[in-house]
Amino acid sequence: MIYDSRTHSLRLRPASHVPAAAYALLLALLPATATIVGAVVLGQIPSPRDVVGIVLVMAGVAIHKPAEAH
Question: How confident is the model at residue 61 (pLDDT cuts 50, 70, 90)?
Fold first, then answer.
């Protein structure tokens, strides 16, 4: 698929329908999900550097505390 303004708008469309924090979480998990799918479906084994990156993203998501509503 060619990345152009149409694909960009399709990727951002859900952003207007979900809370910003939920959309940010989904975007943060996207590389980790893509790595897992690549390993399972395509047999692309991630390098140790990739695994460290995934662990850091997961740790960041796990320790994140949402801002309190005022």
Answer: confident
Q: What is the dihedral of CA 8, 44, 40, 31, to 10 degrees?
A: -30
- Cα–Cα distances (Å) from 19 to 26, 28, 64, in that order, read 11, 14, 16
**Residue located via tokens 């399709």:** 10
Q: For Cα atoms 64, 68, 28, give the angle at the middle one, nearest 5 degrees.
A: 30
Q: Chain-wide mean pLDDT for the chain?
A: 78
The span from the CA of 10 to the CA of 8, in Å, is 5
∠ CA 21-27-33 to the nearest 5 degrees? 130
Helix, strand, coil proportions of the chain in percent (round to 5)?
A: 75, 0, 25
56: nearest Cα among 26, 24, 32: 32
